[in-house]
Amino acid sequence: MKKLTAAFLVCATSLLAACGQSDDPAPQAGAAAAQKIVVGLDDNFPPMGFRDENNQLVGFDIDMAREAARRMDIQVEFKPIDWSAKEAELNGKRVDVLWNGLTITEERKQNIAFTAPYMANHQIILVAHGSPVQAKADLAGKVVGAQDGSSAVDAIKKDAPVAASLKEIKLFGDNVTALMDLSAGRLDAVVVDEVVGRYLANKREGQYRVLDENFGTEDYGVGVRKDDTELLARLDQTLAAMKKDGSAARIAQQWFGADIIK
């Protein structure tokens, strides 16, 4: 009789729980509780994230994201997006994080949350190797290129005197195309993230020159939705561990030949 009563109580409890779930649905788990995160990126942003000769996604941030996902015991999917619409892609839940040389700015903080910075960066000025441009003052009346939706555009505009002196700020879908226009003489300069600009300049030795002056220092972070607090905490914890045990530095050495982790 006791066994029957116990069995009855288990069944009754299960039924009540089921009824309770149908009447009052439990909240859905966030990205942190999922088995996979989708990383939004610009797939033409070497060396942070780009396609190699086999059309495979590679890069510093690709390797960082894969290592972080491995430690968090979740799968990672990389999804190329229109970088100029990155915040809409994130908040529209088409991707779970933005991880591709994303600069932390006060304006972006209004719409998305960031991990602690993992790398410092500058907005450098690239010109053709034989260009007469030697400083920002020499950009007066010149056409300067930058990637649409990038922090390079904001950095130029923040330097009001220089921005006002330019003939035009010409926007491009990616930095590679902007540098092609620089090589073709359709631009006088390109403002670009230092990690990207120096990487591309080294790949095309003798074509470009980096000016001594730049448009300021900034920090890179991983962007997440503001309500994904658990995912943010896990990413911060994981990145901190990767810095502490030297794995982030090893990835940096592979791509930059130096430990540039912040």
TrEMBL record:
The keyword Signal applies. Gene3D superfamilies: Periplasmic binding protein-like II (3.40.190.10). InterPro entries: Solute-binding_3/MltF_N. Residues 1-17 form the signal peptide. Keywords: Signal. This is Amino acid ABC transporter substrate-binding protein. The keyword Iron-sulfur does not apply.
